Amino acid sequence: MSEKVNPQKTVKVRGIEIGNGNAQICIPLIGKSESEIINELENIKTKNPDLIEWRADFFENLDDKEKVIEMLSIIRSLVETTPILFTIRSTKEGGNSISLSEEDKIQLIANVCATNNVDIIDYELINDKKDIEYLREASTKYGVRLILSFHNFELTPAHSVLMDKFIAAESFGADLAKVAVMPQNMDDVLLLLQATQDATQRINIPLVTISMGKYGAVTRMFGFVFGSTITFGVGQSSSAPGQIPIEELRSVMEIVKKSS
């Protein structure tokens, strides 16, 4: 079994410690309307996730800042102390189709940071350096944590490429570095796990790593053993290929923890 993450590589949000060799379970909200999100959230709450991600790119009123902020306020009131991760993904980032320009998108994320209703934001490494730096500054100002992500929904890049993504995220001042890739076979899954383990020895921030699809499902259950600190499960609806129902995910993870 691999070494656990250095205990110093942790991030705390609302009393939840991300890192230190454990993994927190995050559940996505992908409803389109206020009523759908509330219904989805009421179902998810009973499952006691460690974090909740609002995938706002699914929200039908994403182009209305006030409605986004209002919806976020409702989510916060319903989840109470559970940390909220706020994410907008465009189609090029593997997300839903959105009408916002990149400039509008980053401004909305910055406005959301100012509400004090989000704890973490997620932004893609493929975006312009100036935009990443702008959101790092905005999130820091309001005490919001920043995940810088790399997604590849087609394949699993080489080990050196994955390491470069972790290093880039850290160099931009991210609080967490995320890599999610698509495997073509189990060798690709092992590659992702090896890169995760190697990065825990070089990177001084917590990592979030996922191998997607049917081959990669094991990384959602066992990835924390190699250094991944957040895993994404299904509460009501899946937001990415290979996600596992939270009940099954938690059960398997507990068994692994007891045997380690």
TrEMBL record:
UniProt cross-references to Pfam families, sorted A to Z: DHquinase_I
- Active-site feature positions: 151 (proton donor/acceptor), 178 (schiff-base intermediate with substrate)
The answer to whether UniProt assigns keyword Lyase to this entry is yes
What EC numbers are recorded for this enzyme? 4.2.1.10
In which pathway does this enzyme or protein participate?
A: Metabolic intermediate biosynthesis; chorismate biosynthesis; chorismate from D-erythrose 4-phosphate and phosphoenolpyruvate: step 3/7
Q: Which CDD domains match?
A: DHQase_I (cd00502)
Which residues are listed for 3-dehydroquinate binding in this entry?
53-55, 89, 220, 239, 243
Whether Amino-acid biosynthesis counts among this entry's keywords is yes
Which first-to-last residue range defines the signal peptide?
Answer: none
Question: What GO molecular function annotation could you give as one example from this UniProt entry?
Answer: 3-dehydroquinate dehydratase activity
**In terms of domain of life, where is this protein from?**
Bacteria
- What keywords sit in the KW lines? Amino-acid biosynthesis, Aromatic amino acid biosynthesis, Lyase, Schiff base
Q: Which reaction does it catalyse?
A: 3-dehydroquinate = 3-dehydroshikimate + H2O
Instruction: Outline what the protein does.
Output: Involved in the third step of the chorismate pathway, which leads to the biosynthesis of aromatic amino acids. Catalyzes the cis-dehydration of 3-dehydroquinate (DHQ) and introduces the first double bond of the aromatic ring to yield 3-dehydroshikimate.
* Record note on quaternary structure: Homodimer.
Q: Which family does it belong to?
A: Belongs to the type-I 3-dehydroquinase family.
Could you tell me what this protein is called?
Answer: 3-dehydroquinate dehydratase
Species in which this protein is naturally found: Halalkalibacter kiskunsagensis
Q: Which gene encodes it?
A: aroD
